[in-house]
UniProtKB/TrEMBL annotation:
Quaternary state and interactors: Homodimer.
Protein name: S-ribosylhomocysteine lyase
Protein source organism: Lentilactobacillus farraginis DSM 18382 = JCM 14108
Function: Involved in the synthesis of autoinducer 2 (AI-2) which is secreted by bacteria and is used to communicate both the cell density and the metabolic potential of the environment. The regulation of gene expression in response to changes in cell density is called quorum sensing. Catalyzes the transformation of S-ribosylhomocysteine (RHC) to homocysteine (HC) and 4,5-dihydroxy-2,3-pentadione (DPD).
Record-linked NCBIfam families: PRK02260.2-4 (NF002606), PRK02260.3-1 (NF002608)
Cofactor binding note of this UniProt entry: Binds 1 Fe cation per subunit.
GO molecular function term, any single one: S-ribosylhomocysteine lyase activity
Lineage: Bacteria, Bacillati, Bacillota, Bacilli, Lactobacillales
Family according to the record: Belongs to the LuxS family.
Keywords of this entry: Autoinducer synthesis, Iron, Lyase, Metal-binding, Quorum sensing
Keyword Iron tagged: yes
Annotated Fe cation binding sites: 54, 58, 124
Its EC number(s): 4.4.1.21
Length: 157
């Protein structure tokens, strides 16, 4: 089976919350795609409950696109400790961390339920499992710890 970089990361050595570049890949026509690890909580210590994680997912989909060029997708890890962010082109982890921080600040302070996209049975695969309350509380918790642009040392932006 193909060896996957994410599973070679020593999850006991990282210091969340952080942004980490996983890979930059160049396609046959020269286009570059970047994949980032947006680690919001410490692996094997914490995990964001599904309702809050799901609402953060729906919100980051719009908020990150407003703050960063070339966003393709931002999807939660199955372990519920963070998200993959995939973008066209190259961005520094500092730039991504700033966009993430600003997005979480918006969730914590500005977003109301009417602002959350995709919360009915037509636009979401599990619309009953959302919690804006949880999304806000976890965003505040993550922001209180600060977001590092390095995974193994705390270098808070
Ligand atoms: Zn959904």
């Amino acid at each position: 089976m193909a060896k996957v970089e994410s599973f070679t990361l020593d999850h006991t050595k990282v210091k969340a919350p952080y942004v980490r570049l996983i890979t930059e890949e160049t396609g046959k026509k020269g286009d570059v795609i970047s994949n980032y690890d947006l680690r919001l909580v410490q692996p094997n210590t914490n995990a964001i409950p599904t309702g809050g994680l799901h609402t953060i997912e729906h919100l980051l989909a719009g908020l990150l696109r407003d703050r960063l060029d070339g966003v393709i997708d931002c999807s939660p890890f199955g372990c519920r400790t963070g998200f993959h962010l995939i973008t066209w082109g190259e961005h520094s982890t500092t730039e991504v961390a700033k966009a993430l921080k600003s997005s979480l600040e918006a969730i914590a302070n500005d977003i109301e339920w009417k602002d959350v996209q995709g919360t009915d049975k037509y636009s979401c695969g599990n619309y009953r499992d959302h919690s804006l309350f949880s999304a806000k509380e976890w965003s505040k918790e993550i922001l209180s710890q600060g977001i590092s642009d390095k995974p193994f040392e705390r270098h808070v932006i």
